[in-house]
């Protein structure tokens, strides 16, 4: 088979995650398989995506919540395919994997906080609500939350909102506004942040 032109190669790259998950129709599958036969780099990228998906799936095998996370990941992949908003296939796959890793981490932290709270006599409190950018990387989000002393206590909700606890609590409204300003100062990571109602 002749070498792929640039446009065809990009189109194939977009289809690789869906080929790996088995969600392509027969015509698309045949098209990808022909390209894989002709291009070693595409085969390497497919192997990387397969390892990534397998690793994320293994990391999320927790009772019920992990199953929901995997279902959300599959749904997001299908939406990404329909929209085709990105130019390379590995970018949405990595973004979704990072988001899923953050979800798993948040659920784990939330469970630990619930256990600690039950020993302390009450549920964990949330003081801020935050929504992260869809392409925010988990490692950058984690670094930002550690920097401001925030812990995820709930989320994401249906609209993608996480609830955060801050330790130590800012002393007054001015310090709360300064903290919110620090979070909003990272628009590549944070879409929205606000005090929890009732605070």
Question: How would you characterize the overall build of this protein?
Answer:
The chain has helices at 6-21, 26-38, 40-59, 65-83, 90-120, 138-148, 173-184, and strands at 128-132, 150-154, 161-166, 190-195. The chain has 199 residues and is of the alpha+beta class. It has two domains: 6-103, no CATH class; 125-195, Peptidase S8 propeptide/proteinase inhibitor I9 (Alpha-Beta Plaits). Helix 2 (26-38) crosses helix 3 (40-59) and helix 4 (65-83) packs antiparallel against helix 5. The N and C termini lie far apart (65 Å). 26% of the residues are buried.
Largest sheet: 4 strands, antiparallel
Helix and strand succession? HHHHHEHEEHE
Question: Which strand order spans the largest sheet, edge to edge or round the barrel?
Answer: 2-3-1-4
Q: Which word captures the global form?
A: elongated
Mean pLDDT: 77
Rg (CA only)? 20 Å
How many domain modules?
2
Low-confidence stretches: none
SSE layout and pairings?
Elements: H1 6-21, H2 26-38, H3 40-59, H4 65-83, H5 90-120, E1 128-132, H6 138-148, E2 150-154, E3 161-166, H7 173-184, E4 190-195
Antiparallel strand pairs: 1-3, 1-4, 2-3
Helix pairs in contact: 1-2, 1-3, 2-3, 3-5, 4-5, 5-6
TL;DR of this structure?
By secondary structure, the chain is an alpha+beta fold. 61% of the residues lie in helices and 11% in strands.
């Amino acid at each position: 088979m002749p070498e792929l032109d640039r446009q065809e190669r990009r189109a194939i790259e977009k289809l690789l995650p869906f080929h790996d998950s088995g969600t392509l129709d027969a015509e698309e599958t045949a098209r990808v398989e022909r390209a894989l036969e002709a291009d070693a780099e595409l085969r390497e990228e497919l192997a990387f995506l397969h390892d990534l998906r397998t690793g994320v799936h293994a990391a999320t095998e927790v009772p019920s919540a992990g199953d929901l996370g995997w279902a959300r990941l599959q749904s997001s992949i299908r939406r990404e395919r329909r929209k085709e908003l990105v130019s390379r296939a590995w970018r949405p796959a990595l973004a979704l994997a990072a988001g899923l890793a953050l979800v798993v981490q948040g659920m784990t932290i939330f469970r630990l906080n619930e256990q600690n709270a039950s020993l302390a006599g009450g549920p964990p409190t949330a003081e801020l609500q935050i929504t992260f950018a869809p392409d925010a990387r988990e490692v950058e989000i984690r670094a930002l939350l550690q920097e401001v002393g925030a812990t995820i206590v709930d989320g994401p909700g249906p609209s993608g909102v996480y609830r955060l606890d801050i330790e130590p609590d800012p002393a007054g409204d001015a310090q709360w506004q300064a903290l919110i300003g620090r979070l909003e100062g990272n628009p590549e990571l944070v879409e929205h942040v606000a005090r929890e109602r009732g605070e």
